[in-house]
Amino acid sequence: MANQKLMLGDYIWAKQLSGDEFDIPIGGKIVAVESSRVKIQDDDQKEMYISNQQVLKNMHVSSIKGVEDMINLGDLQEYAILRNLHKRYKEKLIYTYTGSMLIAINPYELLPIYTNALIKEYRNQNTEDLLPHIFAIGDNSYSNLKNSAKDQCIVISGESGAGKTESTKLILQYLASASGQHSWVEQQILEANPILEAFGNAKTVRNDNSSRFGKYIDIKFNKNGNIEGAKIEQYLLEKSRIVSQNEGERNYHIFYSMLAGLPKEKKKQLDLLDANNYEYLRGGKVLTCDGRNEASEFSDIMAAFKVLNFTEKEMSDIWCLLSSILHVGNIRFRSGASSHSETSEIADQGLNEKISKLLGVNKFDLTVALTKRTIYASGDQVVANLSKEFASDSRNAFAKGIYGQLFIFIVDKINSAISQVKGRGRGSIGVLDIFGFENFNLNSFEQLCINYANESLQQFFVQHIFKMEQEYYTKEGINWSNISFIDNQQVLNLLAVKPLNVFALIDEESKFPNGTDFSMLSKMHKQHSSHESYLKPKSDMTPSFGIQHFAGGVFYDTPGFLEKNRDSFSQDLKNLVLSSRNDLLKDIFKSEQNAKMKKTLSSQFRTSLEMLMNALNACHPFFVRCIKPNEFKKPQIFDRALCTRQLRYSGMMETAKIRQAGYPIRYSYIEFVDRFRYLAKGIPPSTKGGCRSSAENICKAVLEKRSDYQFGNTKVFLKHQDNEKLEELRRSILDRYCRYKLDLYEFILIFWVSIHVEISSLYINVRIFFKPIHTGCPN
Ligand SMILES: Nc1ncnc2c1ncn2[C@@H]1O[C@H](COP(=O)(O)OP(=O)(O)OP(=O)(O)O)[C@@H](O)[C@H]1O
């Protein structure tokens, strides 16, 4: 923008020069104007110089004021969304709407906004009159359910530490309160949480209480709107954490709670010592977690188990299996004596005996299952010895398998207590708390599954907002038939729909005993290299393939893919657990016994995702996008690049894209007249009324006949180019006006000086030199 059009007091958008993909334009107020640059004050009150070339445009009035619902941003751009969130976050307003989506920024401090009194306010008052809040989402879903009897769902997503679990708990708290019964089943549903957190959450570097699984809690209501039951679905528990943890991270909370809380005699019976004695707990080199009192957590878990009808025997068996896992982790192997092949044996026979006793299996069978592998080929069975390394893998698979099945058992057991729904009730509200899109330095099979889930949810989201946008146009009486929008179906086709899709190829190779990650990858390249969403590997050195996801390109490192997908427990280990005298161990592997062919992890996941998507599609959706404002877990720090990345990964920018495909710029009639009335002759101020016809007259006078703009019931709808034309004209008129004011000022001053000089009878030639002065102009 040319400098003469920049004025003191104006709010502008300015480009950043870093070139970083997440460094988007900043907003600021002009506090000084120079010939080739301006000084602006940004949202953190920091002042900086911006060259005139960096200045993009003036800020829309809605951005200057800030809005509670970003749909009302007259200029719905990524940078406008970010600034609005930043501005509000500084005022401790952590919630902002974008239509039916709620953006929630983690405050990392306890704000006084979750009281029972506030719950009552959101229940009893129109939520539109109250500040955006997670309770409002709870209330809208609950009111919708009561009024329409249509099932509702709330999709909560965001990256680790962004606040998904806290948001889920707040929604449940709200729904329990709105339901107003304080019934036993409500108590049971709330008590499921400490159990799920103990078994499915762990300390990670990003979050001290990170959920390592996804969950969908479907809450059923009866005809009177009271909670009648619930059902929990779990997805993709991170099993690798059982056997190894990154530095600074821990295993699942339950292990530490158990060691801190079990009575002494019980610990003795299970041969348990303190946490630092177990390899599986030492991997991350940290045994404690700030703010957690393990012993009191243990009492809470015990209490919750009781509320959820776990029997004493089941609880005792659970401690027994968890202890066995810890002991299994301490098994070391040494090379065996055979001269023909590499063999291995358990180094500490005392440990072997201890574990066999706890698991109720024969100690010789345990040794064989861990150190040998039966291979089935052409109807024959061959028993192969395992080297020390392979025996260690087998040991880890054993521990992961037991924990994974135990987790499923616990969720099933909770469900059997809380899902006793009688007859057809009013309907349900489902709350989905699921990991957001992930793109790390190293992305493996888990990231592929997570990102596939996010692609599916993204499509669901896009369809919803597109529908909402269309409904908005209809409500405003705008013709929207020419708006088209491309969704992410082609990525879904590549991943899971088209013949020989990515998951189908992984599955196919997983079924071949000799299938390798490499053969899978070369088939993948052959099949998909011409697909627009398939990315060429970064280099020939890394065995990887890339997918252009809605949120950005991700390269997946394929080593280990097939092993993870097979998710297998060797037949020898399976036979071992099925021979156990421990009821729980046998019980949790029951399904394995009946299954002819174990389903791969990806096919299990795809089946549950398909069921989830079907359930969501039958619901009226709400979306909560949680944003982590900084990596330090500290309040009042807003890292712009971090937030921008999350906004993009959240798929929220699709709202902006859909808006761009139609009429992206909107003004209420009053706003429009206030801003542009000087552009045409004889337009009265907005306070005089008749704003719609004033707006029509302005557009007629300024914009070309062919221009595509529309007048809705409450707003003017514009394309970018027309808005720019209006702004340009406004700027030049204000510029002229200011110059005129300066001329007038100059004239008055000279006149006044001459008179003064005359009066003093001093005949001196006065020459006054005026430098151009910039001054703020009226709107
Ligand atoms: N509304 C909130 N008010 C105060 N603190 C919050 C809020 N939301 C989140 N936090 C803080 O942030 C931490 C992380 O939140 P949470 O566990 O909900 O993240 P998450 O998105 O579920 O992460 P993960 O995917 O790792 O499970 C919480 O333990 C809490 O300290």
Automatic annotation (TrEMBL):
Write down what this protein is called.
Answer: Myosin motor domain-containing protein
Q: Which GO terms describe its biological process?
A: anatomical structure morphogenesis; animal organ development; system development; tissue development
Species:
Acanthoscelides obtectus (Bean weevil)
Main localization, broad class = cytoplasm
Residues reported to bind ATP: G158, E159, S160, G161, A162, G163, K164, T165
SUPFAM superfamilies recorded for this chain?
P-loop containing nucleoside triphosphate hydrolases (SSF52540)
One GO cellular-component annotation of the UniProt record comes to: cytoplasm
Q: Which family does it belong to?
A: Belongs to the TRAFAC class myosin-kinesin ATPase superfamily. Myosin family.
Give the span(s) annotated as Actin-binding.
Answer: 609-631
